[in-house]
Write a structure and sequence with these properties.
Helices cover 47% and strands 17% of the residues. The chain is an alpha/beta fold. The radius of gyration is 16 Å and the shape is globular.
């Protein structure tokens, strides 16, 4: 199965499918995977999210990391695992959520915004740090925090990141970016999601060539 490092190395983008419904899961998931995405997140404030996670995990769980976003409690971690999810993403840092995730052998990606939160999350066992909200910072923030974090710490910037500024964040030291409404909005057809996904993938390739 795909590891976090392998998924980020393949394509450093996390698809945030906030608002997706179970009937959309397979066509949207197929469009994203065909474009090159290998990390897909169904936020738990979407309609019937565990059904969506199960469908995506059944279809793409061997080659991709499928999981839940907006995970706030250990109980939600367990339900994500029961649905076949392997990655748990939160907007905040909650040590109990991180520890519950790791006990189940899953990948933990809590939201942090300060150096203190970042180090506390790593101490609790987090595999990846979600810097959120990304549109409240500049790329130089990533460069500054990267200088003091362990070299092995993975950083994903989420919120306000898209094709226009992705290269700046990656050049500053981000390992990836979570892409939400710029990629998927409720009701957006899978064909359109695929077109936007391809544009984002092209932006990643351009950023890597420029590095």
């Amino acid at each position: 199965m795909t590891t976090l490092d392998a998924a980020l190395d393949r394509l450093p983008l996390l698809a945030i499918l906030r608002g997706i419904t179970p009937p959309e899961a397979l066509p949207v998931g197929k469009a994203l995977v065909e474009a090159g995405f290998s990390i897909l997140e169904a936020p738990l404030n979407s309609p019937e999210p565990y059904d969506t996670i199960r469908q995506l995990a059944d279809a793409h769980g061997e080659s991709c990391l499928i999981g839940a976003g907006t995970v706030l409690t250990p109980e939600q971690v367990q339900r994500t695992a029961d649905a076949g999810g392997r990655i748990v993403v939160s907007p905040n840092f909650n040590a109990e959520v991180v520890r519950a995730t790791k006990r189940l052998g899953m990948i933990s990606c809590p939201g942090v915004f300060t150096p203190s939160e970042a180090f506390a999350a790593l101490d609790a066992g987090a595999d990846c740090l979600k810097i959120f909200p990304g549109d409240a910072i500049a790329p130089k923030f990533i460069k500054a925090i990267r200088a003091v974090l362990p070299a092995s710490a993975r950083i994903v910037v989420t919120g306000g990141v898209g094709a226009a500024n992705l290269a700046e964040f990656m050049a500053a030291g981000a390992d990836g970016a979570g892409i939400g409404s710029a990629l998927y909005k409720p009701g957006r057809p899978a064909s359109e999601v695929g077109i936007v996904a391809a544009q984002l993938v092209a932006a990643v390739h351009a950023a890597r060539e420029a590095a």
